[in-house]
Amino acid sequence: MFIPFILHAFTVSGFLFLDVLANQIFDPASYDPEDVLTADVAVVGGGSAGVYSAIRLQQDYNRSIVVIEKNDYLGGNAETYTDPQSGIAINLGVIAFPQTPTVKSYFVRFNISLIPFSLSYTIGTYIDYTTGKTVNYTPPAIPDVGAALEGYTAQLEKYPALQGSFNLTYCQK
Asked: Whole-prediction pTM value?
């Protein structure tokens, strides 16, 4: 069942504000026709999860979708940096995903093959992508990374609702 709502978008000083007006009277005639979008579902955010959700809702459930994204491109944290001097494109963003059925289904849908991922410190040069200049950085030693992950795991075990995901439903007041 879908509950009708109005997503009212407006800008103030260049910032986008969204207002959900549930069960309010909406008269499309009071707006220019090109300013009215009608859809079954509004997906806020054109990152990986938002785009995938929109595609699934449209293709698998035959819903009309509108994706609202603040940037002029989709992909969220996955983007490409092109070095202005060499023209070499470098893909940035998430490089590792957990091997869950949902993740596998996600990549199968786009005909993207997965490869095993292992952490290694074989990178010889570190670059500041905002300036394009090399930076002096020494990654932590493997034992230090292991100790940090053990500390994280100890903290995580204190909050069972977070294990296996980042489900924050336990935070209800």
From this structure: 0.50
